[in-house]
Amino acid sequence: MVGESASHSAQLDSLILVAVDGSASSYQAAAWAAVEAALHGRSLHILTSMAVQTGFGPGMLLGEADVEWMCRDGERILTEATRVARTAAQGEDLEVTTEVTFELVIPTLIERSRQVQMLVAGSRGMGAFQRGLLGSVSTATTHHAHCQVAVIHGISAIDAVSATQPVLVGVDGTPNSVPAVEVAFEEASRRKVGLVALHVWSDTSGLDLPVVGWDAAQQSAEAVLSENLAGWSERYPDVPIRRIVAADRPVRSLLDESANSQLVIVGSHGRGGFASMLLGSTSNALLHSVEVPMIVVRSQ
Question: Which stretches of the chain score pLDDT less than 70?
């Protein structure tokens, strides 16, 4: 372990951990993670892995000179990520620690996720034949991490214009979305913006929608959304809420609404998933299509 200080110097349960690999996407993730940490008064830990991915069989033997060069390269990546993070935090009193590891990044992050508050990763890394494979990191952590996972896509949405946009949360009417609703209210409150709560009552659209019983289904869906939001408005009176009930496919509705949001929050699996499925089809599809930052909230 090499870095500004060891990760154990901070309280792990208040840490936000961001993985960087030198790609533009990972630096966007570092910027977003810094703003998130400052909003919540948490510490930020920036980690880069210099582990060499190998196939089956003996691993690559590295000489002392190779290890030294990789350490320097890792420190270069961390220095730039730290600069980006502190610039994004805009002078906030943010504690930043850094770490170069030679452990494989995916199992390392999944293991750390048992102790930290949130993992943050970029949606794209250095490419399939480069060292970082951060795209694989974001996919693996959203499926297997034990904490919240934020995936930062093409933009970090921390500019002045994006910062005024609302937070969007998908509400599916099951207990699995309750943690996502709680996180969404807190994020909107800390950002001082509104919250858009979207509930979709049909997985079909267009000509496939039933005509008989439409009004009853719509009213039932509105009642489900109200029930899922009950109590949160009283707890967060500073957060204005816009409720959307739609008869459409969840992915398309959330994707359309995300164009006017700064952050999308969803549960880890939805109404159609088994408890053992760590990522539902809606969450998984959004990971590959939404452009703004997205938080996947693990059910307790």
Answer: 1-13, 53-62, 125-135, 202-214, 269-280, 300
**3-class secondary structure, 149:** strand
105 CB neighbour count, 10 Å cutoff: 26
Please answer whether residues 197 and 180 qualify as being in contact, where contact means their C-beta atoms are separated by less than 8 angstroms: no
pTM of the model: 0.84
Q: What is the pLDDT of residues 213-230, one digit of tens each?
A: 567 777 888 888 888 898
Fold match between domain 7-152 and domain 162-297: yes
Ramachandran sector of residue 219 (left: φ over 0; alpha: ψ -120 to 50; beta: rest)? alpha
For residue 187, give the amino acid letter: E
What residues does each domain of the chain span?
Answer: 7-152, 162-297
Q: How is the beta sheet containing 263-267 ordered, strand by strand?
A: 96-101, 43-49, 15-19, 118-122, 148-152, 294-297, 263-267, 167-170, 195-200, 241-246
Q: Residue 7: its pLDDT value, please? A: 41
Tokens encoding 124: 């794209």
**What architecture is domain 7-152?**
3-Layer(aba) Sandwich (3.40)
- Written out in words, the top-level CATH class of the domain with range 162-297 is alpha beta
Structure tokens at 266: 């969803």
Say if residues 43 and 144 touch (Cβ distance below 8 Å).
no
pLDDT for the residue 294? 95
Determine the pLDDT at residue 246: 84
CA distances (Å), origin 219, targets 19, 208, 246: 44, 19, 11
